[in-house]
Amino acid sequence: MTDIPTMTLPTLPAHPDPETDRVLDSGLLHELSYAFGGPFHFLLPHRFDANLAAFRTALHDAGVEGRVYFAKKANKAAVWMERCAAQQAGVDVASVGELREALGHGVRGKNVVVTGPAKSDELLRLAVLQGCLIAIDALDELDLLITLALTGAVRPARLLLRRLPPAQPHSRFGMNDAEIETALDRCVRAGDAVRMEGFSFHLSGYATQPRADLAGELLDLCLKARVLGLQADRISIGGGFAVDYSAADHWHSFLAEQKPEHYHAKKAFRTGDFYPYHSPVAGADALRTILDTIPEGGQHTLAARLKDTGTLLMMEPGRALLAGAGSTVFCIQGVKERDGYRIVTVDGTSLSLSEQWFNSEYLPEPQLVTPSGPVNGGDAGAVHPACVGGASCLESDMVTWRKVPFPARPRVGDLLVYPNTAGYQMDSNESPFHDLPLPPKVVMDRLGDRPRWRLDRRPAC
Prior knowledge:
Layout: H1 18-25, H2 28-36, E1 40-43, H3 45-62, E2 66-71, H4 78-87, E3 90-93, H5 96-104, E4 112-114, H6 121-129, E5 133-136, H7 139-150, E6 157-162, H8 177-190, E7 194-200, H9 209-227, E8 234-236, H10 248-257, H11 283-292, H12 302-309, E9 312-315, E10 326-338, E11 341-346, E12 367-370, E13 373-374, E14 384-389, E15 398-406, E16 415-418, E17 441-446, E18 452-455
Parallel strand pairs: 1-17, 2-3, 2-9, 3-4, 4-5, 5-6, 6-7, 7-8, 8-9, 11-14
Antiparallel strand pairs: 1-10, 10-11, 10-16, 12-13, 12-16, 14-15, 17-18
Helix pairs in contact: 3-11, 6-7, 7-8, 9-12
């Protein structure tokens, strides 16, 4: 196959990650691939601890009382519940299964917030019994909770009222102004059966100013609720803290250069459907920016208003707590030649890299790892372009539609390691299609020349 000049194919390398490189250099991944006989994910729990500490430091530096709740939906691994329990962090759940998983790994009910729409009777009963904080999404849900609290509950039902974002009026989540008014009245009339602790919202997107603006509105609602005799001493700004996967110059160059010809079958993607793989303000820095922002119509920063009103700030990051905390490993089991590029087929499916199932593409490039180690460079000025297909019979089962400019020719038995996939990519869409087992998760408890690993406690089922 003729070599193709590097300049003709856009690239999007992930940020350098020496700790992940140590895992790749160890030789362990080929052994694990052989042992499992299929794809797998490896997890770095110390990264979760570091990300959590960064959020807490941002709160401390701003002089704001706050609590961080891990959005469990971002990754199903049990190790994150272990870390939350050990670090006395909160967990955001939205189902009976998620709640039981959190409680079963030592997370106390008082450290759990229950979100999601139209919660079942079983979920509400369990949440009340365990003293969880429940984000109420609608008036009928509030009526059900009050009924449960009035008929045999051993403690008041703790709740937040979820606000419909005025800037996103077509969202199906939250209550509008009139519904909030009605909900406040019902909480007052419920008396000691409920404890209305504040308000919450969740915004789509990653902009910081709208979050500060809506948080300012929630503070005003808290003050109004306190006049009515309700506790209302906390607000939750949800998630939406971006993760920075790649450098700014790489990201902007990629967007400017990419075109259908750079994808298998000339697949066309709308750039607006791509996750923003570069974010100048990400993770805990985004929280710092929100706290330093003056909400629209105000005169003081959000941090100052939180302190002045004695209000606790809650947040529910998922992806941001998992930044850098894991990668996904596939083994190449077939290579097919095409005009000017190759189609590599791996031993799993795109259901294990979820972005592909949202009319999008996971763009940070996989690392090619041979039995001799990672390939970090090849012949100067030449690349070996290849797209990556899954091992199913579906044309749409493409792990990577893009013709990735690999520095060496991919061969059967080589590994492809997709970086930084712990946040939402690993298992939000996984399925045992073709009776293929779900990829197991391997926890790396200690790095070094020979990483120490164990299977995540959650069965791969």
